[in-house]
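Troubleshooting log. The previous structure file for this entry was overwritten by mistake, so regenerating from the original sequence record. Sequence copied from the archived sheet and checked twice against the printout by T.R.
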Amino acid sequence: MLSARVSRRPLAIPFLLTRRFLATSAHNTPSFIPVIDFTKFREAAGKSERKQVADKIVSAFKDSGFIYLAGHGIPSSTIQNAFAKSADFFRMPPEIKAKLAWEDPRSNRGYVEIGRERVTQSADPAEIAALRATAPDFKQSMEIGRDWDAEWKNQWPQESDAPGFKRTMLDFYQTCHDLHASVMRSIALGLNLEEGFFDSKINEQCHNLRLLSYPPIKTALLQGEGQARAGAHSDYGTLTLLFQDSVGGLEVKNPHTGAFIPATPIPGTIVVNVGDLLARWSNDVLRSTLHRVVAPSAKQISDTEAMTPARQSIAFFANPNFSAEVACLPNCGKEAKYPPVNAGAYIVGRLAVTYT
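Regenerated output below.
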């Protein structure tokens, strides 16, 4: 979830800030989400240097399930361009976007209009339908998968309707996969596995690049019971890479207090969190933490009404290969909490009850 306003230079963040409990800074970041500089992992001369960074990442994922990743190596210009093309897409007329509509959870590709998705921890279709009717998610999205899939095809707009959109998103998808693979190598190292343990289990790139647009909305429409721009939920896969704009709205549930705390955007960083399948893989050694998107501060437009600002974000939902079996890792407890599960079946099952 970084905006077009992101700094043109990567933010230099001292490595001493990678302590497990980062003191609340001028950014008002939650103290249980540390900022970790990934530069030393990417550029390390040897395994021992990488292990130092890996241990910090795994420690944070054990504690809160979330980090701010600095020094990730993705140029700010690349992120800015992805945000600009995403904004161009959502500005297209509704009738053009409607032709690209999301159709099938096995595909998980295409345009999702406002109110069609209702993220929640429930797996009960009737309960989700009721939530969607009374408290729909106020957002629209565009879902993009691997473009070479033999069975499921992406829903691309015509080049004349969205110039450069397809090429930008294909390149960004690959960039995000490459970063995801590197972070997974750090997790393997931090869990005292072979550094390449996950390589063959994520190389098929069965991921989901989600472009998100939260239109401006009157605050009265967000005041119903259970209402939010995106309801409290955990993610489904291994890791999520979240690029935020400067508006904010992401809140993370502190696993120690139960309170939802704003994860204020920090320029030059990516929010990275553990998904359900990685938590399951690790026997809950790594946390998949609840989070939500709420309305940021609103602007008063009359004596009785206020308007929340528009918000953009980009989420890269990284998954295991859909053919992979997710079973308790060998060094994450003597007794498995969960039976083995096929990654593809798990994710499709979660998606199937999330959408209409």
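Confidence is low (pLDDT under 50) at residues 1-27, 118-122, 127-135. Archived copy saved in two places this time.
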